[in-house]
Amino acid sequence: MTQLWRSFGFIVPLFTLFILILSILLIGVFIFKMRQGANAKAVIKQSLLDVFLLASLSGILLVTLLPNSTGSEQIIQLMPLGSVVELIQHATDISTLIRILGFNILLFIPLGAALALKFDKLRYSILFSFCLSSFIEMTQLLLPGRTTNIDDVFLNTFGAVLGLLAGKVAKRFI
């Protein structure tokens, strides 16, 4: 966890500022819709879903698209499951494996849940998650110190699918 904080701790103030601005904008939209006579409960629900979706998208983009200043070289890995197999073979302990693979999965779970709660078409949500992850990996080709890895696309999409399933279950109770 300390290593994650060292790597991404600088994003917390940016993310917090973004959520604050987003919340102010959505409060304005809420007030506007309420003045037009909209159902308060429906407007609140939609506004919260919008915040959840935009927060998950902004978190993903902040974590993945800011240049890495650690000075590491550009790495491109296009062989499917190549880095996963290598990581399994050479990981010094299980925590390294869980941290690296798990973070890629966890990163997209909130997005999947938000998409499931907001939209009905799960296959389009999966396609959107796959395309977003592919876009991120292609963009990382242009960013200093970032790694482009096809396995990240698969792991991110798998995380989104887990989030979609969780969101689908949660939707029954909301």
Automatic annotation (TrEMBL):
Xref: Pfam families: VanZ
Domain of life: Bacteria
Residues annotated as signal peptide: none
Protein name: VanZ-like domain-containing protein
Keyword Transmembrane among UniProt keywords: yes
InterPro entries, A to Z: Teicoplanin_resist-assoc, VanZ-like
Keywords: Membrane, Transmembrane, Transmembrane helix
TM region(s), chain numbering: 12-32, 48-66, 97-117, 124-141, 153-170
Domain VanZ-like: 60-167
Species this chain originates from: Alkalicoccus urumqiensis (Bacillus urumqiensis)
